[in-house]
Design brief:
Length: 319
């Protein structure tokens, strides 16, 4: 049986690395309704905790990628993005509550010979409102909205917005226990070019130390606990970052998109429900691009980029 466990774990890691993509869709604070607040005793008459704050900080650094386009063949570009988020969660009952948050995102393009724009750093302030509820002991619903404000421009046409709606139906099975069936959608609006991704997939715990989150595109990971506070995970990642350029750039008030996907191996430390940390290393898949366009989002130039290593990490704690 132990051999079958490890065999199944290895197969799951392989399948996840080949087919999964995790979404990084802006700095919206976590608002999970399921098992994210384990200090609540469901058998207690009153909630011991009715509200708490959370502080998150994360950063992703992608090393230099080579351009595949012939006219930029000798040039390289790196990318970095990090978030600082402070949020507050209020529990109205044991099964419903809301979350408000504010934060800051820094996006950096590392390209010395960039002919399209001179600005290297792009900064936004982010504000979000999220809520969650549980219905009939088998259906969990959550949703959220956020606005990101460009701190270099302070103009409405430089802002963008994210919207997410998510449902999770809990199906009790004989062999895998509770299986979550997830459905919904997540989107980005504004800057003349957004996206809309459907959310679908399952999450399950086939064994005590193995958690599988097979939810496209928001949470595609296989997590294996190796000790009380420590676990390993293999996860897919999808990056989709878009910003507007200053009016004094070569492409006055134009746009750029950095789009890529990758696979990473992470080491996690979790001291539920108070704090957690993650460090990971990964590689992009070589299917990324830097898209640059004018103020009307026309005459786009799509520069293909090669695979590159990246590192990142995250720390959060509650108070």
């Amino acid at each position: 049986m132990k051999f079958l466990k490890h065999l199944f774990f290895c197969i799951s890691l392989t399948l996840t690395s080949l087919h999964s993509q995790d979404g990084t869709f802006g700095g919206t604070p976590s608002f999970e309704p399921d098992d994210s607040i384990p200090w609540i005793d469901e058998s207690a008459e009153e909630m011991p905790v009715k509200s708490f704050g959370q502080f998150d900080i994360d950063y992703e650094s992608i090393f230099d990628s080579h351009f595949k386009n012939s006219d930029f063949a000798n040039q390289e570009m790196g990318f970095g993005e990090g978030n600082i988020i402070l949020s507050y969660t209020r529990l109205l009952t044991k099964d419903q509550g809301y979350n408000v948050g504010g934060g800051y995102t820094k996006t950096t393009i590392f390209w010395d010979d960039n002919p399209f724009f001179n600005q290297d750093n792009f900064d936004t302030l982010n504000f979000s409102l999220n809520g969650f509820t549980k219905c009939f002991n088998c259906l969990e619903l959550k949703g959220g909205a956020s606005i990101s404000i460009d701190t270099h421009q302070w103009a409405w046409d430089y802002n963008f917005y994210t919207l997410t709606g998510w449902g999770r139906y809990v199906w009790n099975t004989r062999f895998c226990g509770d299986v979550g069936i997830n459905f919904g959608a997540t989107s980005r609006l504004g800057l003349k070019r957004g996206y809309l991704y459907p959310i679908f997939g399952v999450d399950l715990t086939p064994w005590e130390d193995l958690q599988m989150n097979l939810i496209f595109p928001t949470d595609m990971a296989v997590i294996y606990r190796i000790a009380k506070y420590w676990s390993l995970d293999l996860r897919g990642k999808l990056l989709n970052s878009r910003r507007r350029l200053d009016k004094n750039e070569v492409l006055s008030r134009g746009y750029f998109d950095y789009i890529s996907s990758g696979i990473e191996l992470g080491l996690n430390f979790e001291c539920d429900p108070y704090a957690a940390a993650n460090f990971h290393v990964g590689t992009t898949l070589g299917n990324g691009e830097l898209r640059v366009s004018n103020t009307d989002d026309l005459d786009a130039r799509e520069l293909k980029i090669s695979a590159a290593l990246y590192i990142g990490g995250k720390i959060w704690f509650r108070f």
